[in-house]
Each structure stands twice: as structure tokens, then as C-alpha cells.
């Protein structure tokens, strides 16, 4: 455990993230397929703002004391004959009220509901006395939710276009394409998990979905900036390939990404535990879940998806393929110098071919161990390394004389 933490904080490239990208592709692809299947087959639990319905609101204080959501839900079910979509407390202090959301109610059932609420709960008006006017109702049209969805879609497209232009100018077009694929992955995974869990989709959910895109983009830009720093002037060097330089960049920013994600997830998790579990504020649930899932998905995609995709796109260019071949040839020469001559050239040739194939495909290849010139020369003369070839005994004394 200590060794793993040490490697995380040192960022020495010990974790082969890029070299195992086929595993990450498979996991991400499976997750996307599951999420798409859930959205197509299961669908979403759309709230009243998207499907239309009736909204009833009353104070939390009554003539008999505090009014609870359980009491309101029971009265609603008894008077209407069906349970409400949701009953939640909104606001705080003297401005707190109970909000009921249900399917569309006609005038007769709406009147019966308001009368039952007043007769059994006696909510207090602004003057501190029980008042029927303290109970308000309104009809919500489904077109309002459609307008929200339309505006959110426009905002998403504008955001993606601006991101593409920024990344293409600041970095390179292939980086912009990789980042966009990662962003689409985050949107699909977040929406799919929302569909699987079955939480109600509200305008707060849509707003939360848009906010997590900024976090995902931030994490991706941090990694890409380090990749650009490590690969500057790489085509003229033979120390490491583009894939290895990108993998080193991921390792160098890995702990930063993990720490940032943890710091961002903790307050969002507190919204779910405290806001929903203890305080019972349902509106926080819609915002907290989409943000928590989006942050985790964004962190995963920036590390395990965006950078490997960028490496694959980069290795399609002949210049980087040729640089990878030069790296393989350099390592072949180093391996040949450090290996005994008695082992023959067959093993070296096979290792060279394997090394060239690996670096050309973008996989990580470690440098071979380096030997000393003295030990190599000694092996070629058939003598143990480190021993002198000076004659000994009488012959040696005669020669010295």
C-alpha cells in the first residue's frame, strides 16, 4: 500500500495507463452500452416540469402545530384517490412551505384537495390565523419543460463548439477530438445512471448536467497541458516514444486529478446525505446525484479515455511512427552492447522486431539495462569482468624488470 501511494505521489510513470488502453476502451464501451440501453428501454422519470401537472403549496405551520410532509401526503391520497408525485419542504424558517406535485387535476378534484387540506391541517396565513388563501395551486404545462430542454440542448451545442475551437487553437485538433469524445462519454454515462437509478428529472438535473461538463473539461485540459509539455520537440529525440511521454504525463497529473475529484465529491456527497437524508430537501437530490456521477465520470474519462484516444490518433501520423522506430533501433543497439556475444544475434533480432512493433503501435516499452564497457570487453575476451590481463608470476616479474 505504501509503495502504491509512493508511486502515485512521485508520478514516475510506474502505472501503464496508455499501454493498457484496450482495457479502458472495453470498460468505457460496456458502460456506454448499458447506459444507452437503459435510456432507450427504461427511459427517464420525468418530473412535472416536463410532463405537466398540478402544483399545490401550503405553509408548514398550522393551527395544531407544525405540518409534516407525511400528513400532507396522507390527506392528498385520501381526497384525490391516488398518491402525489412528490411532497417536499422548500425554503427555511418562516418562509418554509410544503410543495405538492402531482399529475394534472381537474377543477373538482383540486377544490376537494384544498378543502381537505384546510379542514384537517388548518394552515396559518400571513396574519397568523387559519386561512384557505394560504393554500395555492397552479397548473404546469408540459411545454415549459420542453422549452427548458430545448434551451439546454442549445447551450450544450454552443459549449461543445466553443470547447472545440479553444482546444484546437490552444492545443491541436486531435486533442480537441479526444476531449469531445470524452465529454460525450460523460454526458451519456451521467444520463444513463440517472435513468438506471430512477431519480426524477427536473430543471435542476439539467442544470447539474451542464455544470459537470466544465469540471470534466478542466481535468482533461490539465492532463493535455502536461502531455504537450512532455512531447515538445519529441520528434528529434530517441529517448522515449509519444505513447510513453503521454503515459508519463498521466502519471504526473494522476494524484492531482484524484485529489481534485475527492475534494469536489465530498461536498456533493454531503448534499445527498445531509440535505436529502436528514433535512428531506428533495430539490438537492436532483442536483447532487447528477453532479456526483458527472465528477466521477469526468475524472475517469480524462485519465483513461481522453489521453489514450489522443495517443492513438497521434500514432496514425507517419512522423511519430518513424520516431517510434528510431527509439526501437536505439534500444536494440543498447541491448546488443549490454548482452554477451555468446548469446548470438538471433535473440537480439527477435527482440528488435518485437520492440519496433510495440513502439509503432504506441505501447510502452521500458529501456533495457545498461552494461559497462569494461565488463563487455572482458566477456568478449573470454575473461571474467573486472580482472586484469597483466601476466603473473615469474613472467610478470621478468617483464617488469
Structural description of this entry:
Helices cover 67% and strands 8% of the residues. The chain starts with a helix and ends with a helix. It contains 14 helices and eight strands. The chain folds into three domains: 12-45 and 143-314, Multidrug efflux transporter AcrB transmembrane fold, CATH 1.20.1640; 53-140, Alpha-Beta Plaits (2-Layer Sandwich); 319-371, no CATH class. The strands form three sheets. Strands 5-6-2-7 form a four-stranded antiparallel beta sheet. A two-stranded parallel ribbon has the order 1-8.
What's the domain count? 3
Largest sheet strand order: 5-6-2-7
Envelope shape = elongated
Briefly note the structural class of the backbone: alpha+beta
- What Rg do the Cα atoms give? 33 Å
What is the H/E order?
Answer: HHEHEEEHEEHEHHEHHHHHHH
- The CATH topology of the largest domain comes to Multidrug efflux transporter AcrB transmembrane fold
User: Number of helical segments?
Assistant: 14
Major beta-sheet overview:
4 strands, antiparallel
Q: What fraction strand?
A: 5-15%
Report the mean per-residue pLDDT as an integer. Answer: 78
Number of strands: 8
CATH class of the largest domain: Mainly Alpha
Which residues sit in consecutive blocks of at least 5 with pLDDT less than 50? 342-354, 365-401
N→C terminal distance: 64 Å
| Helix residue percentage | 55-70%
* The CATH architecture of the largest domain: Up-down Bundle
Amino acid at each position: 500500500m505504501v509503495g502504491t501511494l509512493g508511486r502515485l505521489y512521485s508520478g514516475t510513470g510506474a502505472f501503464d495507463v496508455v499501454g493498457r488502453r484496450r482495457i479502458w476502451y472495453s470498460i468505457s464501451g460496456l458502460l456506454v452500452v448499458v447506459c444507452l440501453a437503459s435510456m432507450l428501454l427504461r427511459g427517464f422519470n420525468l418530473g412535472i416540469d416536463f410532463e405537466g401537472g398540478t402544483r399545490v403549496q401550503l405553509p408548514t405551520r398550522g393551527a395544531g402545530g407544525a405540518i409534516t410532509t407525511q400528513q400532507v401526503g396522507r390527506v392528498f391520497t385520501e381526497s384525490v384517490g391516488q398518491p402525489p408525485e412528490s411532497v417536499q419542504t422548500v425554503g427555511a424558517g418562516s418562509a418554509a412551505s410544503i410543495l405538492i406535485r402531482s399529475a394534472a387535476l381537474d377543477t373538482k378534484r383540486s377544490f376537494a384537495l384544498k378543502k381537505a387540506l384546510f379542514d384537517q391541517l388548518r394552515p396559518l396565513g400571513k396574519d397568523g390565523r387559519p386561512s384557505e388563501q394560504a393554500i395555492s395551486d397552479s397548473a404546469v404545462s408540459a411545454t415549459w419543460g420542453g422549452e427548458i430542454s430545448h434551451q439546454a440542448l442549445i447551450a450544450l451545442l454552443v459549449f461543445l463548439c466553443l470547447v472545440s475551437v479553444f482546444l484546437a487553437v490552444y492545443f491541436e485538433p486531435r486533442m480537441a477530438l479526444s476531449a469531445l469524445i470524452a465529454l460525450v462519454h460523460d454526458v451519456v454515462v451521467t444520463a444513463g445512471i440517472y435513468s438506471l437509478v430512477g431519480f426524477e428529472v427536473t430543471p435542476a438535473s439539467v442544470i447539474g448536467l451542464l455544470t459537470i461538463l466544465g469540471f470534466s473539461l478542466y481535468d482533461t485540459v490539465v492532463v493535455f497541458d502536461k502531455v504537450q509539455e512532455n512531447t515538445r520537440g519529441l520528434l528529434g529525440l530517441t529517448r522515449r516514444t509519444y505513447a510513453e511521454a503521454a503515459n508519463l504525463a498521466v502519471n504526473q497529473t494522476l494524484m492531482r486529478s484524484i485529489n481534485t475529484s475527492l475534494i469536489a465529491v465530498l461536498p456533493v456527497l454531503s448534499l445527498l446525505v445531509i440535505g436529502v437524508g436528514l433535512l428531506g430537501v428533495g430539490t438537492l437530490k436532483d442536483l447532487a446525484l447528477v453532479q456526483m456521477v458527472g465528477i466521477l465520470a469526468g475524472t475517469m474519462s480524462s485519465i483513461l479515455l481522453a489521453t489514450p484516444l489522443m495517443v492513438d490518433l497521434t500514432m496514425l501520423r507517419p512522423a511519430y511512427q518513424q520516431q517510434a522506430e528510431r527509439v526501437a533501433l536505439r534500444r536494440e543497439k543498447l541491448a546488443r552492447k549490454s548482452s554477451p556475444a555468446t548469446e548470438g544475434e538471433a535473440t537480439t533480432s527477435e527482440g528488435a522486431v518485437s520492440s519496433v512493433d510495440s513502439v509503432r503501435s504506441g505501447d510502452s516499452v521500458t529501456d533495457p539495462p545498461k552494461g559497462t564497457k569494461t565488463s563487455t570487453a572482458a566477456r568478449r575476451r573470454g575473461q571474467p569482468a573486472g580482472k586484469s590481463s597483466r601476466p603473473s608470476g615469474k613472467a610478470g616479474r621478468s617483464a617488469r624488470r
